[in-house]
Amino acid sequence: MGTKTIENIEGQFEMFQILNENGEIVNKEAMPELSDEQLQELMHRMVYTRILDQRSISLNRQGRLGFYAPTAGQEASQLGSQYALDKEDWILPGYRDVPQIIWHGLPLYKAFLFSRGHFVGNQADGLNVLSPQIIIGAQITQTAGVALGLKKKGKKNVAITYTGDGGASQGDFYEGMNFAGAYAAPAIFVVQNNRFAISVPVEKQSAAKTIAQKAVAAGIQGVQVDGMDVLAVYKAVTDARERAINGEGPTLIETMTYRYGPHTMAGDDPTRYRSEDLDSEWEKKDPIVRFRKYLESKDLWNEEKENEVVAKAKEEIKAAIKKADGTPKQKVTDLISHMYEELPYNLREQYEQYSAKESK
Amino acid sequence: MAQMTMIQAITDAMRTELKNDENVLVFGEDVGQNGGVFRATEGLQKEFGEDRVFDTPLAESGIGGMAIGLALTGFRPVPEVQFFGFVYEVMDAISGQMARLRYRSGGSFHAPITVRSPFGGGVKTPELHADSLEGLMAQQPGLKVVIPSNPYDAKGLLISAIRDNDPVIFLEHMKLYRSFRQEVPEEEYTIEIGKAEVKREGTDITIVTYGAMVQASLKAAEELEKDGISAEVIDLRTVSPLDIDTIIGSVEKTNRAIVVQEAQKQAGIAANVVAEINDRAILSLEAPVLRVTAPDTVFAFSAAEDVWLPDHTDIIEKATQVVKF
């Protein structure tokens, strides 16, 4: 191949798939060991999260939620990966990765408080989760650090982080992978390639044909996965996790997915940069539709089960909104109190000032 | 007691805390085998092992981000930014992330991180090594910014910084690293962060300063004494948060003040000190509070740095002006 090394590499990154668009197992030997109950639980979570997304969008439109980044289309990537984790594993999410931290234990009302810009939504209460990172890629170098810390403490746990295709352009993406690789730290870097960094298509973001191949330069494992296939995502993360805790270092996982909705609810209009043809092409790959077909063929799912999940989701969302509404109003003095362990003179003075202002 | 240079005192502080607390980790570019480009970590890897004192890949943002991750898992990281001019590469990790961790998480997490870094003029470095960027750091809520002026303070302040449960930016003036030795106790001791020290008492004017300008200010005070002007010199030691009581107490006594910093004039620590004096002691003042600083360029190319840097003659001139106002 002479000096044209890129040709040697790109061909090696074929998309890993287990369940195809029609709900058929196409890669039986890769099928993860999941019980019927676990398969049903995965479906439960995806259906629930789709409803949560729909309700969140409508609550946002009613002015009852704040910042919100829609998740529909990405359920398999988000929930299949989280489901492969141990409770003590760390999650360092990007701004769209709220579902993963909810399924890792964050109460729903806190997710709503995060959306409303209330600090109680960011309190982890002993969970190994950070609040969704706003700076693209900042969490990736932190993940290398959490992973190294887990290794130094002798824990059999991993740190997993999420970003999008846009995040793979950041310097921190390369630095995080490189650091974790250099220390053989138990980290998993998930890039949900939903094809657009807000509006810029992935083809215009990089000359690289895959994001997975970027692992090669860091000397770590890289895999491209069908991000609409919950079984493939689960399997890829399970394998990566296994290698990580065995001291075999980090893995980069690129999940090929699509967000059906806008970038966020703050005025983004995807019709300015995406065609209807592309939207419908991806909707045919829908993670829930194909998994439903698969489970129905195994007699593990039916309309009744689905309706139960939908009803449960709606009920819990309603209760969580009520709880969020009942949370005491956020005060500036609360914020002042959390700047330092002990307040310096300026904040002590300002605490008094705002205390007086807030008690009026 | 031992005679130590400031860099030896800094090494000694890290050794003390590496011994005291198994969660203390020291890392950065060249800090392991090589002992740091200034030898600040000399011998530490050998003594404490590569698990605790280690080299990093050459990427400042990665170092900052990794420090945060290590803090989240219970460590007390002491990363080094090889020269503080490189801080721009790690600004998000410092100001966007570690400074906000306690606040963002509503107290669920915090960042007991001490970022050590050499800075300061007078040693003819290439560009982006010597810049005084403490003003940038001091504007970030959530950080503490400490700048020692001598070996004794450096040890006590660095031990306090490492034990602090909030992030501390610990800036080490390169010119002071080996310029003089001082008696430094071999045992551990701390100096409280946020406390200034009156280095010289006086009655006519207060000189508020820090870092390498403490030596220049003391020299100026000696010369002013010959002209019959009694100057009090305050070494801030911590530039954020300020020790407001010491500053205001002194100004209320002398009724006059100047603020001396090596940094360029715009914004910055000196401007903040002037504003605080105006806020809190305006009626005690017999004259405006003036500043001695470098000009508002970025740090001088080394061929011009001797003129660019403020020195004791600039301090004498400004102090005299204020006293004769």
From TrEMBL, chain A:
Cofactor(s) named in the record: thiamine diphosphate
Entries under SUPFAM superfamilies matching the protein: Thiamin diphosphate-binding fold (THDP-binding)
CDD domains: TPP_E1_PDC_ADC_BCADC (cd02000)
One Pfam family, short name: E1_dh
EC numbers: 1.2.4.1
Keywords noted in UniProt: Oxidoreductase, Pyruvate, Thiamine pyrophosphate
Keyword tRNA processing attributed: no
Catalytic activity of the protein: N(6)-[(R)-lipoyl]-L-lysyl-[protein] + pyruvate + H(+) = N(6)-[(R)-S(8)-acetyldihydrolipoyl]-L-lysyl-[protein] + CO2
GO biological process, one term: branched-chain amino acid catabolic process
Superkingdom of origin organism: Bacteria
Molecular function, one GO term: pyruvate dehydrogenase (acetyl-transferring) activity
Residues of the signal peptide: none
PANTHER family: 2-OXOISOVALERATE DEHYDROGENASE SUBUNIT ALPHA, MITOCHONDRIAL
Subunit structure of this chain's protein: Heterodimer of an alpha and a beta chain.
Function: The pyruvate dehydrogenase complex catalyzes the overall conversion of pyruvate to acetyl-CoA and CO(2). It contains multiple copies of three enzymatic components: pyruvate dehydrogenase (E1), dihydrolipoamide acetyltransferase (E2) and lipoamide dehydrogenase (E3).
Record protein name field: Pyruvate dehydrogenase E1 component subunit alpha
UniProtKB/TrEMBL annotation, chain B:
UniProt-listed Pfam families: Transket_pyr, Transketolase_C
SMART domains reported for this sequence: Transket_pyr
Cofactor: thiamine diphosphate
InterPro entries: THDP-binding, Transketo_C/PFOR_II, Transketolase-like_Pyr-bd, Transketolase_C
The keyword NAD is assigned to this record: no
Single GO molecular function: pyruvate dehydrogenase (acetyl-transferring) activity
Top-level division of the source organism's lineage: Bacteria
UniProtKB keywords: Oxidoreductase, Thiamine pyrophosphate
UniProt keyword Oxidoreductase, yes or no: yes
Name under which the protein is recorded: 2-oxoisovalerate dehydrogenase
